Amino acid sequence: MLERHIRNIFDSVRQQNEWRMKTINLIASENIVSKTVSKLSGSDFAHRYAEGHPGERYYQGTEYIDKIESDLRNDFKTLFRSARADVRPISGTNANEAVFSSFINPGDIVMVNSTPGGGHISHHLAGSVGKFTKNVIDFPLAADGFHIDVDRAKDLIRICKPKMLIFGKSLFLFPEPVHEFRDICNEYKIHIVYDAAHVLGLISGGKFQDPFSEGVFIMTGSTHKTFFGTQRGVILSNMGMIDWQKVDKGAFPGSSSNHHLDTLVGLAVATQEMISFGKGYSGQVVINARALGKALHRKGFKVMAQEYDFTESHQVAVDVKDYGGGKMVANLLKENDIILNMNILPHEPLRNVTNPDGIRIGVQEMTRVGMKEEEMDRIAAFIAECILQGQEVREEVNRLRKDYAEVCFSFDEILTDLQSPNIFS
Ligand SMILES: Cc1ncc(COP(=O)(O)O)c(C=O)c1O
Q1: Which of 24, 256, 271, 287 is spaced 20 to 30 Å from 163 by Cα?
Q2: Model confidence over 206-222: pLDDT tens digits?
């Protein structure tokens, strides 16, 4: 009985592998790791602990991870031109928690992007920020819904005097107007936090915005959305040592103890890939997203932010209310092996969150497997055939995907001789 259960788990994992290799994955928060990175999983590091910092651990036996971790920390500092980096958070939320716990006190006012405005739950009352203060206010939005109304936000800042502004979002089409808030934040001693979970890879490739040069105090991020994975988080800053010590404690012991060394070694390789290929990759991601937006628009879809050429990131947002709403459309596409998620749009009330008008599309993973503008046109055609004409497109989707089985922007083709250090292989 038990044995059958274990075999079933193995079967499920195999089925997932086989199925997902046939699908067009457009979930904006995901990416795939290269073969080289993937080979690293399941080494002895999967079993180990390394609390503290390289060279200052609470456990013995950490010599090898110490070297990998301190090199990785330095690579992040170089890549983002920051004086400080903490690579220990095990996710973007975890990184946010380390920062929010360090700088938000009960009663502080924090200004964030609302949920319909694209903000992430960790910035909200129900998430991490809400553990430290109940005073969360939203950035006012411009009429298009995808940009902050800077003048109204500044008026609100003068009245409310928030302690912190949190930029960055989950539905993230355009750079945030960070530099426009620099002076007022200096005047009122407001910390600017930039959550780069979605756009970390685009920033490191120089294709989005450069938050530090625009006045950001601290930046957090996930390492697996537009960055090349594995699934972890990071904190970067140019702040002084006294403030950084707070963040350091926020990361450990504040928001985690051991930091999952198995994924840390994968991230070390993924970061080398980003250093070598990030610029070309992120440029193609933005080109592809815009191409997909345009193609969907040509097919008759209500693609958001048309007046701004749809997007400057890896994402496109589409209002599909006329076709049954985001949930129905996302489910229909899933039946045809196109995977994406429903998403609330800026014009909607919060109560729509579980049945919103929109879908969010991310092209970063399909770009990583080598797709370009032509394939974006084909994806738009599949979506149109499926949603507008009610046709089945699964077989064509699978056929297209079959030609994109390799992970590009990696060392996979060069380092074919590398044996997996998986402890049992
Ligand atoms: C803006 C933003 N911040 C943080 C997170 C959380 O990241 P993670 O899933 O790595 O915890 C997300 C997740 O999608 C996000 O969109």
Answers
A1: 256
A2: 999 999 999 999 999 99
Dihedral Cα 378, 382, 385, 387, nearest 10 deg: -130
Residues facing 236 on adjacent strands: 85, 219
Which two three-digit tokens encode residue 223?
């390492």
353 inside domain:
no
Reading phi first (left if > 0) and then psi (alpha if -120 to 50, else beta), residue 310 is in left
Parallel, antiparallel or unpaired: strands 218-222 and 191-195? parallel
pLDDT at 182: 98
Q: Rounded to the nearest whole angstrom, what is the distance from the C-alpha of residue 425 to the centroid of ligand 1?
A: 33
Please indicate whether residue 163, judged by its CB atom, sits closer than 6 Å to ligand 1: no
pLDDT in tens, 101-113: 999 999 999 999 9
CA–centroid distance, 63 to ligand 1, in Å, is: 31
- Distance of alpha carbon 199 from its chain centroid, rounded? 6
Q: Is residue 145 part of a domain?
A: yes
Domain containing residue 242: CATH number:
3.40.640.10
Instruction: Show the domain range for 103.
Output: 38-271
How many CA atoms are closer than 13 Å to the CA of 173, on its beta-carbon side? 26
Are 194 and 211 in contact, with CB atoms under 8 Å apart? Answer: yes
- Does ligand 1 have an atom closer than 6 angstroms to the CB of 282? no
Please write the tens of the pLDDT for every residue from 358-393. 999 999 999 999 999 999 999 999 999 999 999 999
| Residue 291 half-sphere exposure toward CB, CA atoms < 13 A | 19
388-415 residue pLDDT tens: 999 999 999 999 999 999 999 999 999 9
